[in-house]
Specification:
six-stranded antiparallel β-barrel, alpha+beta, 6 helices, 2 domains, 9 strands
């Protein structure tokens, strides 16, 4: 074998090894990755639709980070803000790049509080219960649109009454929208939200929004 052929073979073997290593990188949950120091991260509010984040890989090995359904992001400093509950599973591929900028879709987990904005730092934490995990999975699978997902989330997380949906709908309408139009829209969204709760394997009648 010539020296040139040996170099080509060595490069090929290294490339193949790297490709296999990257492909075999097992997914690591966000909270575990942060706890083990595999990544550092900064998350900020993005209104009622989710959070934005910047993650920095702290290990030379390729890394796949996963944000699990129902992960709750809460404001780090100060009170009076919504927690944001993530929808579905958000994979973050950090194999090829050390820094990743992400948007994690979600909804407000606390009815009646302000939605966090870009000036609010957010800290991720585990889902409060398994119901929230199942609902987050159902929302990601069904893709119902944010209003219905938000109502379902408040119903399960906060056990809000029916009037909460009507107030939410009224705030999204033009000032002079008729009562009949608001009521019809609220009924439509409640029906869609109830369907999501059923898809999550939960009993809607256990929640005040659907009684």
């Amino acid at each position: 074998m010539t020296r040139r052929a040996a170099i080509v073979l060595l490069v090929g073997l290294c490339t193949a090894w790297l490709s296999v290593t990257m492909a075999m990188a097992a997914p690591v949950g966000l909270l575990e990755a942060l706890g083990r120091g595999l990544v550092t991260a900064e998350f900020r509010g993005a209104g009622d639709s989710g959070v934005t984040g910047t993650l920095v890989r702290q290990t030379p090995e390729p890394l796949q980070v996963v944000v699990s359904p129902g992960t709750v992001f809460r404001v780090q400093f100060g009170g009076g803000y919504q927690g944001i509950s993530s929808f579905g599973t958000s994979p973050i591929d950090m194999s090829a790049y050390r820094v990743a900028h992400v948007f994690i879709p979600g909804g407000c987990a606390n009815f009646g509080l302000r939605a966090p904005g870009p000036s609010e730092l957010m800290v991720p934490g585990p889902p409060p219960n398994q119901r929230m995990v199942r609902l987050a999975q159902a929302i990601a699978k069904e893709e119902p649109g944010h209003p219905a997902a938000q109502i379902a989330l408040w119903a399960v997380a906060n056990n809000v009454p029916k009037w909460a949906t009507r107030r939410y709908v009224a705030r999204t309408m033009l000032p002079h929208t008729s009562k009949a139009t608001i009521d019809a829209r609220a009924a439509q969204l409640l029906s869609q939200a109830e369907g999501l709760v059923k898809k999550a394997g939960l009993e809607p009648k256990k929640f005040r929004a659907f009684r």
